[in-house]
Amino acid sequence: MSNDRPSSDLTVPAATGAVSARGDVPERFENPGLPPHQPRRADSEPAADKRAERQVVALFGVSILGTIGVIVTYFVYPHDPSIESMRTANMLLGIGLFLGMFGIGAAAVHWAKTLMSDHEQAEARHPQRSDAEVRAGALQALSDGAQDSGIGRRGLLKGAVVSAVALAPLSIAVPLIGQLGGDWDVSKFRHTMWRSGTRLARDPSGTPIRAADVTIGSVYHVIPEDLRESDHWIEEKAKAIVLLVRLDPQDLVESDERRDWSHEGIVAYSKVCTHVGCPVALYEQQTHHLLCPCHQSTFDMADGAKVVFGPASRALPQLPITVDDAGYLVAQSDFHEPVGPSYWERLK
To answer: Taking the domain 188-331, which CATH number applies?
Structure first.
């Protein structure tokens, strides 16, 4: 809708009080005060008040059950290294943690909205240090607020909130404490399942790889052929995963001590990023660059998997390989350096 009046006529009505020199904008507005309080059902109906209290207690109860569920799952559920077992245990732990934290949050919100005083309060600003009379009044106001909230006369509610808040940290503390007595032997990171003569196999099928089947530019995700024979094969796989690539031998830059670590342009490097341990598996054929998807560390597969970009500080460890009598690719030995990121016994 159009307005034919000139803009100078569209003035703001002056509020009661002083008006600026322009005559159209007030310098201040009178305090309109607080709107009338709208009572809730719980304020006037004892049944509604009791129902709301039971709902809050139930939510705190949900939190308590969730925390207990986490602790029971941690101690009772079998620590089986199988993928199915870990998936189930992680799901139960996640559900328990969610219920433990959600129950407290939802109960606090519902308590505040239905049971605590909802009268709006306004206080004039004053110097940071009040006089004794004002400070005494503030303490009295806090006491009145606590009394108005009903926490003192709601014994069941008080017990529920104390129990839920006291138990909630256990869902995190118990698993952490349980790990304090775990295996802290970091020397395990220095060794993997690779041994002299271990065949390189496709991941996850475990099929051995013939050197003749690896064409220039092809990429293979590799594991030791006998990986599944290990009792802790998942942990061993996390250390032993390898990326194998065949390059044109003319593009390959090798140091003198590593010239016999490859086979006709086929090179194998650890997939565990030397930054924080993410699996590096994004290979760009034209540049021979290998990218870590977590923090974009980039390694040059044609030049010793050296870092060309990103936060990683070390090249990927190279797995020395050769070919056995049947034409299959095999490891010459384990990695000559620890795989993965730095730790307190390996800073570089």
So the answer is: 2.102.10.10
| Of 73, 48, 62, 75, residue with least CA distance to 106 | 62
- Please answer whether residues 302 and 253 qualify as being in contact, where contact means their C-beta atoms are separated by less than 8 angstroms: yes
- C-alpha separations of 243 from 202, 206, 236 in Å: 10, 14, 16
**Is residue 77 very low, low, confident or very high in pLDDT (cuts 50, 70, 90)?**
confident
pLDDT value of position 22: 57
What does the alpha-carbon distance between residue 291 and residue 285 come to, in Å, rounded to a whole number?
11
- Find the helix or strand (DSSP H, E) in which 55 lies: helix 46-76
One-letter identity of residue 33: G
Q: Going by C-beta distance under 8 Å and a sequence separation of 6 or more, which residues neighbour residue 64?
A: 100, 103, 160, 163, 164, 167
* Statement: residue 2 has pLDDT above 50: no
Contact 197, 324 (CB under 8 A): yes
pLDDT of residue 11: 44
The whole-angstrom separation of Cα 100 and Cα 287 is 50
On whether the CB atoms of residues 275 and 311 are closer than 8 A, the answer is yes
Distance from C-alpha of 52 to C-alpha of 299, rounded to nearest angstrom:
60
